[in-house]
Amino acid sequence: MNMLRRFLLCLWSLVIIASATSLGVCTLRPVTTRPGLVRLYTLLTGPEYFWWLLLVAVVMLLCGMLGIFVALAGKSAPAQVIIGNSEGGQVNISLEAVDNVVHKAALSVNGVREVKSRLKAAKNGVSIKLQISLPHDINVPDTATAVQKVVREQLQMITGLSVAEVAVLVSTMEDKAVKTQATIIS
């Protein structure tokens, strides 16, 4: 988010906080002596509206505080893994790039239909947790072992990263007929 948008979000959030504070104060006690406004205050702060107005004021206050937090929060750098050090400096690779290699490697194994992954940088390389979908007629242990092996080899070959762990969870066993039928319908 650029500086202007951060400033505008912060300004808008301050307006929301001020409005919430005014609404909360007006809900708790009258701030005017004008007859028309006193009548409106009496109507709105009746027993049926008091808690609703107070709730709206609290929600507005929380939204304003969240807006200020988002506006002032720093931009987080993408997660990276160190590949190596040399005289010229350090070589890093983003976890997003590693994730791309992991997906392609896992999908290259016969039978794997869908891959979801979580990667975490570890001291001794990268830790990978995969969720895969397989057809119901595929041997699960052999396929999971093949996925582990292919992902580990591809990552080491392409990126030079050492792989601390490749955990595979088979999340769904899909029926070929149902999958084909769903594809034809869509």
Describe the structure using short key phrases.
186 residues; 54% helix; Alpha-Beta Plaits; alpha+beta
List the helices and strands and how they pair.
Layout: H1 3-28, H2 35-44, H3 50-72, E1 80-86, E2 89-94, H4 95-107, E3 114-122, E4 125-135, H5 140-158, E5 163-174, H6 176-185
Parallel strand pairs: 4-5
Antiparallel strand pairs: 1-2, 3-4
Describe this entry's structure for a reader.
- This protein has 186 residues and is an alpha+beta fold.
- It has two domains: 70 residues; 106 residues, Alpha-Beta Plaits.
- Helix content is 54%, strand content 24%.
- Strands 3-4-5 form a three-stranded mixed β-sheet. The chain has a two-stranded antiparallel ribbon with strand order 1-2.
- Strand 1 and strand 2 form a beta hairpin.
- Helix 4 packs across helix 5.
- The two termini are 37 Å apart.
- The relative contact order is 0.10.
Please tell me the overall pLDDT: 79
Please tally the β strands and state the result.
Answer: 5
Tell me what the CATH architecture of the largest domain is.
2-Layer Sandwich
**Estimated share of beta-strand residues:** 15-25%
Q: SSE order in H/E notation?
A: HHHEEHEEHEH
Radius of gyration, Cα only, in angstroms? 28 Å
Strand order of the largest sheet: 3-4-5
Report, as a whole number of angstroms, the end-to-end distance. Answer: 37 Å
Q: Given the helix and strand composition, which structural class is it? A: alpha+beta
Roughly what percent helix? 40-55%
Fourth-level CATH superfamily of the largest domain: Cation efflux protein, cytoplasmic domain
- How many helices? The count is 6
User: Given the C-alpha coordinates, what overall shape results?
Assistant: elongated
CATH class of the largest domain: Alpha Beta
Largest pleated sheet: 3 strands, mixed
Count up the domains.
Answer: 2
CATH fold label of the largest domain: Alpha-Beta Plaits
**Poorly predicted ranges:** 177-186
